[in-house]
Amino acid sequence: MSRWSKLRRPSTAESLPTADVTQFELLARQRLSKMAYDYVRSGGGDEITMRHNRQGFERLQLAPNVLVDVSRIDTRVNLFGSELDSPVLLAPVAYHRLYHPDGEIATARGASAAGAAFVVSSFTTTAMDEIARNTQRAIWFQLYVQRDRAFTKDMVQRAVAAGCKTVCLTVDTPVLGNRYGQLSFGLPKELECVHLRGLNLGAPTPGHKTQRGRIYDPLFDPSFNWRDLEWLRSVAGVPVILKGVLSPEDGKRAVENGADGVIVSNHGGRNLDMVPGTIDALPRVVEAVGGRIPVMLDSGIRRGTDVLMALALGAKAVFIGRPYIYGLAAGGAQGVERVITILRDELERAMALTGRRSIAEIDSSVLWGHGAAGKKTLQTPAAGA
Ligand SMILES: Cc1cc2nc3c(=O)[nH]c(=O)nc-3n(C[C@H](O)[C@H](O)[C@H](O)COP(=O)(O)O)c2cc1C
What is each CA distance from 368 to 19, 245, 296, 297, 316, in whole angstroms? Predict the structure, then answer.
């Protein structure tokens, strides 16, 4: 029995779910080791923010318009110069070979087949140029800044040389969250974070093991701050997006400091617990940014209607994390492709049923109580700054 899978029987396209992306979680759970499954599923603290991510969407309601000719639905978007089939992208997730032997290559192939962009983690277990060779679609690079800035610069420039169209700087992780479900996690010896090769950590093998009693991790530079952004922009030479903004003040600072985009994210509820769900934080960040740079969102997206609601509140695109990782674990490239396809179909269906034919036609009027469909009966809870 292989380490990644508890089942011998490979998944075929026919055996994968054709609707409801949440069904992939059970399949993944049957295949993954307990340690790997817990690593993916769990969140920070008491997982209250993880729940807020879903509850935020559940509180919203849609306001359909009828008798619109919806015989053609167009979900295409253009982001940072890349034409994408839909506004659903794959969020950066560490260690894909932990979930499937083909790792990031399977993800790249699945994303390519489904027409989605893929943000590759700094903790990729496959080299960036190999990933690039396996997709016809855009890839972006997610950066965890390392204490060794020359090493960081080199890592960014190798990713850009391999074809990454943007650098997505993760700003919500100067230290890791309290992840009680991951206390026993260690990266298996056979797996390597290939882009960290040669990094002198002054500590044992990477794998999210913090030293006992200390909050710092050798893999994250806790000193990186707004003043360093200029340096990163100058070495990247491609758009730099900040992933992990929640407060309107930080949205404004992002613009002032030259960021090219922000992702409203709480890391899928994996870092600081007790922050709001991202759909609740989104409106105030959108307002603070004032259309000067694109605002995107992740954390908790599980349905096409979630995508529609995020766009209605001003997101230009959304990212999924766990859903496609469960797809990868369940069925490799085909599983990833299927998850993306299901979400796109659901988005198209939601657009048809609300009378919105293109992404440009989606605005707050598609939310009940926000537009023409009645008074402000439903308030979006104020985002916590
Ligand atoms: C297993 C796992 C590993 C992750 N690794 C990274 C990472 O390496 N870099 C990063 O910026 N975010 C990472 N994230 C956060 C995701 O990019 C994303 O913000 C989150 O998964 C979105 O929430 P969702 O899982 O509810 O869709 C990870 C998330 C998961 C579940």
Answer: 26, 26, 22, 20, 20
Query: Is the separation of the CB atoms in 2 and 101 below 8 Å?
Result: yes
Q: How confident is the model at residue 376 (pLDDT cuts 50, 70, 90)?
A: very low
Q: 245 pairs with which residues across the strands?
A: 264
- Active-site residues, by number, are 267
For residue 222 the two structure tokens come to: 């806790």
Domain definitions of the chain by residue range: 13-366
Q: Which helix (H) or strand (E) holds 257?
A: none
**Residues β-bridged to residue 243:** 170, 263
**Over residues 114-131, mean pLDDT:** 97
What does CATH list as the number for 13-366?
Answer: 3.20.20.70
Largest CA distance in the chain: 65
Cβ 139 vs Cβ 114: under 8 Å: no
| Closest C-alpha to 99, from 173, 162, 47, 25 | 25
Q: Which atom of ligand 1 is nearest to the CA of 298?
A: 22
Q: Is the CB of 321 under 6 A from ligand 1?
A: yes
Helix pair angle (34-41, 322-354), 10° resolution? 40
Render pLDDT for 339-360 as a digit per residue (tens, 0 to 9): 999 999 999 999 999 999 999 9
Question: Mean pLDDT across the stretch 37-45?
Answer: 97
pTM: 0.93
Spell out where the chain has E strands: 77-79, 82-84, 88-90, 118-120, 139-143, 167-170, 240-245, 261-264, 295-298, 318-320
In short, whether 54's Cβ falls inside 6 Å of ligand 1 is no
SS3 47: coil
Q: What pairs with residue 78 in β-bridges?
A: 83
Tens of pLDDT, residues 278-288: 999 999 999 99
As a whole number of angstroms, the distance between CA 272 and CA 265 comes to 11
| Pocket residue to mutate for ligand 1, from 51, 267, 272, 303, most atoms within 8 A of Cβ | 267
Q: In angstroms, rounded to a whole number, what is the distance separating the alpha carbons of residues 351 and 249?
A: 32
